[in-house]
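Note to self: user wants both folds in one dump. Writing first protein now.
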Amino acid sequence: MLLNEFLWVVIKTVLQTEQKAARLQERYRVSPVFKDVLRFFMANEEDGDLITLDRLELSVRSQTGRKYDRSELVKVFYYLRGECFGTFKVGRHGNPSRFISDMPLSEIGKMAAGVADSNDVEVEPGETSKLESTATLQHSFILRTNLTIRIDLPHDLTAMEAGRLADFVRSLPFN
């Protein structure tokens, strides 16, 4: 029973992540502000998982030459929060407004562009990147308190492939 629950959680997580990636890619495709912000995330792997609104505003302006209203950048943070990519903290008592991601910001940018590597993104204006068949997402599952299982699965994993993966796990020998 535990194995079936585990497989269901893995399959459900993969499908939800695939749907979340598709929504993010659509937003990236149709919104210039989202595209510029997410390209900035992708290009700055050293930023880790936190960025302030002030830094984002200055960096996007210097990278693209476009000045976005702060409210537009805040909408990006709220969208990412709504899609469960992290937390947006509004600045209070001298602290800056900031987004704290649950994954590296560069990975969110890569997911939005549909690529595994930031070098794969076309820089020509007006063009969008295609999702590569080799692009993967890493999933983690806490099997025991001291054991986390990590698995890399393709962005475009199908229900049939997820079923095959479930069959594989079921076929493993147990004592």
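First done. Writing the second protein, which came from a different request thread.
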Amino acid sequence: MKRLVILGGGESGVGTAILAKQKGWSVFLSDRGALKPQYRDILSRQNIDYEEGSHDEARILAADCIMKSPGIPDKADIIKKAREKQIPIISEIEFASQYTQSTIVGHNRQQWQDYHHPTHPPHFQTSRIRSRLGWQYRL
């Protein structure tokens, strides 16, 4: 059974944990902070292993894949260590996309960095996105 570790116990982390368990993954959710009571209840009802207040480094680094919540910076120590071990680190959208036939409109990380480069003002970013989608879409 593949092991998925989810870093971050907010809405995206808990949602990913539920989907992963339904799809047959062994799931462990870890949040350095405190989980909201409603998320703790959901994880318990779904029989999903979790921890809060710390990160069990050994357990995290034994993952086949790590889903990193958006609020966790790439420079976090646990992320750096996972990269050193060449553990794939993905977003919740990347994880969920493998289980849908729907069209997903998105971009790769380099495109995101290009669009949000400090020298690109917001109107420029919006213009570049609109140029890719077409003017029929309003942002």
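Dump finished. Worth passing along: The helical segments are 11-22, 37-45, 57-60, 77-84, 92-97, 109-115, 122-133.
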